[in-house]
Amino acid sequence: MKKQKHTEETPDVTKESQVEEPILNSETSEEAADQIEDELEVMSQKYSELNDKNLRLMAEFDNYRKRTLKERMDLLKTAGEKVLVDMLPLVDDFERGLKAMETSEDVQSVKDGVELIYSKFISFLLQNGVKAIPTENETFDTQFHEAITTFPAPSEDLKGKIIDCVAKGYTMNEKVIRFSKVVVGE
Questions:
Q1: Coil, strand or helix: which one is 23?
Q2: Are 141 and 96 contained in the same domain?
Q3: Is there a single domain that holds both residue 117 and residue 136?
C-alpha cells in the first residue's frame, strides 16, 4: 500500500470569501458610538466597584495584621503573669519564715519551716510542668547533662555514669530548660 503524502492546501483567498465590511452611514455610526460609550461607562463602573472592594479588603487585612501584632505583644508582656501571681504565696511563706528566724531559738522548727516552703515550691514547679532531671546513678547523657569534669571511677560499673551532681537540671514540658551540671566517672 502506498503512503500518500498529506499536504495541507491553503485555500485560495478570493474576493468572495472575504468578509465585506458594512458601509456605515452616520446613523449607525452614532448608535455604535453610543453603545460603545454605554459599555465603557458600565466597565468603568465595574472597575470602580472592584477597585473600591480591593482597597477595602487591603485596609481590612492591614487592620487585622496590626490587631494580631498588638495582641501578640500584649500576650508576651503578660504571659508570665499567672505564674508570678501563683508564686506570691510562696514569697509570703518565705517572709514569714525570715521573721520567725529572727526571733526563734528552736533551730529544728526553723528547719521544718524551710523544708515546708521548699516542698510547696517544688509542688508549684511540678504543677507548671517543671521537673528535675534525674542524675543519681544515671548514665551520662549529653541531651540532659553537662559534664563539668571527669573523675576516675571508684569501680568499673561507674564508668560513664554520673558520680556527683553539682547543679540540678530541669525540664519544662519535656524540653530542657537547664542542663544538669555533673561529674562523670571515667
A1: coil
A2: no
A3: no
Residue 151: strand pairing partners: 185
Q: Which residues of the chain have pLDDT under 50?
A: 1, 13, 15-17, 19
Q: Which residue has the cell 555533673?
A: 182
Cβ partners under 8 Å of residue 144, min gap 6: 133, 169, 171, 176, 179, 180
The answer as to whether 144 is a domain residue is yes
pLDDT value at residue 22: 52
Partners of 130 in the beta sheet? 172
Residues 69 and 86 in one domain: no
CA distances to 146, 172, 180, 183 from 141, rounded to whole Å, are: 8, 18, 10, 12
pLDDT at 21: 52
Q: Identify residue 96 by its one-letter amino acid code.
A: R
Question: Do 135 and 145 touch, CB atoms closer than 8 A?
Answer: yes
The letter for the amino acid at 42 is V
Provide the number of structural domains found in the chain.
Answer: 3
- Cell 547543679 -> residue: 167
